[in-house]
Amino acid sequence: MKIQNSFLLFCALASFSAQSQNSIPVVSINPSEIISNEFIGNGIEFSAYPHADTESSEWGKLMTDEKWKMVFDRVSFIKPKIARVMDQANWRYLKGFDASGNPIVDFESDQMQALYKLLDYCEKNKITVILGEWGQPYKVHDTHLNLQNSFTGANDQRWIDLIIKNLNHLLNVKKYTCIKYYNLVNEPNGDWATTDGDFEQWKEGITMLHKSIQKAGLDKKISIIGPDATSFNNPRSKYKGLDWVKQTALQIPNLISAYDAHDYPSKESIRSGEFQKTFGDLVRFTDSVHKKPFILGELGIKGDPSSKEHLGDKFTSVDSQLSVYDYDYGVDMADALIQAMNAGFDAVIAWDLDDAMHTKDDKGDKYQLKRWGMFNSLGKELTDKKEDENLRPWFYTWSIMTRYFTSDMKIVKLDHLNIEKVRATAGFTASGEATIAIANNSDKEANFTIDAKKLKLKSKLNKYLYTESKRPVDQNGFPIPSEKMSLKENSIKVSIPAKSVILYTTYQ
């Protein structure tokens, strides 16, 4: 009887062991299941510091050569493939009007020199630029210009002509080839936009801009992106939130070369996966109507600030997200980026790079900083806190996912990853390079195997690890690999801790 019981116990243990081994999911990467075949890459919102770029700006010329170098060094590690550079005519080149009401422009102004510094960097580093203006020129933070009633809207031909003058100068005189898209009005469906949600006004402006670009012979160098709409519903708008994207695809698909939208999802919608579903449906719709690149032009996370250390900070405006100081913002942004790529976006742009770029309503009040950045390059100068210039946690995950998903990659689907709150995406190149990013937004460790045989990966991998207790960096605070791996049989055994991110890449 004892022998029989022992035998039965042995069989049961053997069976349990086999089941435990077999219970580890196998996730496969199939290069034929392509999500994005027009992948541009990920990037950043990048502004030329309108409050600190010249001696005459609100803060004076705080953006010294030393400060610019710090910013460019950090951007060089991120290696953005795309940058959204939004501006205002009256911040840069519009200096007023003559006696006949004609605009006075100055393309050699100190303010334009700051913009050239940024565009020179993008040109040198082959960064695709979306250029645009927040809205029609009006009195924002200029005390010497009164432009409030100078233009009547996005469909004012005088403003369109002014834009064409600027584009002609940038493309033909300065010869920038990095500027690929033009964005007319930021978030035109919002009640904060100069269009105030008037779709017909915006559409007419787009039509006028398209004709003017063609007439000026610039259509081979630049095209229009739109609608740049946010998911916010403006009750005065004919269409709800993201329906602007659908109507753009249905009504004026031949006037734009790429779709774009903005979103600030809640942490809950990211962690549940609802974010990917919403935008996956939208991308599929636009693809079915008129397929073209689709860019998520601003991505940040809304919700109540969670960083208790910075609540009540006297320099922080209500238009801020203090979670940027917290570790878990790096997990949530990585998770959102993975979902956005899996939804079919061809590029995703983070809002934003640096707290020093913008203030509430861009009035230049240093006590109204928009705190959304990966750092504050003017921490010492504006807040008397040098440590505010340090890199924040989410720089880690956004930088590696931007740096190692290159523009020549195809983004492909991972099959059978059915672990709750664990998401992954992968990209590969024709030359055999590959990157895989994984976010575990659950409260427990996840284990699975990635079968990458069909990718035929190179034998060496760098593994980057982002956890609360371990995220290796170099002397600059830039991520470095936690491990260098040798692949066996083109499979990767993954053990990812709760609330963490792992990135594998063949790039050395």
Explain what this protein looks like in three dimensions.
It is a single chain. 30% of the residues lie in helices and 22% in strands. With 508 residues, it is of the alpha/beta class. The protein folds into two domains: 24-36 and 408-505, Golgi alpha-mannosidase II (Immunoglobulin-like, Sandwich), CATH 2.60.40.1180; 43-403, Glycosidases (TIM Barrel), CATH 3.20.20.80. Strands 17-16-19-14-13-12-1-15-18 form a nine-stranded mixed β-sheet, covered by helices on one side. An eight-stranded parallel beta barrel has the order 2-3-6-7-8-9-10-11, surrounded by four helices. The longest helix has 21 residues, at 2-22. The chain starts with a helix and ends with a strand. Residues 7-21 and 139-146 have low confidence and may be disordered. InterPro entries: GH (IPR017853), Glyco_hydro_b (IPR013780).
Which radius of gyration do the C-alpha atoms yield?
25 Å
- In spatial order, strands of the major sheet run 17-16-19-14-13-12-1-15-18
| Number of DSSP E strands | 19
CATH class of the largest domain: Alpha Beta
Q: Alpha-carbon distance between the termini?
A: 61 Å
Q: Percent of residues in helical segments?
A: 25-40%
Instruction: Output the CATH topology of the largest domain.
Output: TIM Barrel
Shape: globular
For the biggest sheet, the summary is: 9 strands, mixed
Beta-strand residue fraction:
15-25%
Structural class assignment:
alpha/beta
What is the CATH architecture assignment of the largest domain?
Alpha-Beta Barrel
Number of spatially distinct domains:
2
Let me know the CATH homologous superfamily of the largest domain.
Glycosidases
Please, how many helices? 12
Low-confidence region ranges: 7-21, 139-146
Task: Determine the mean pLDDT.
Answer: 92
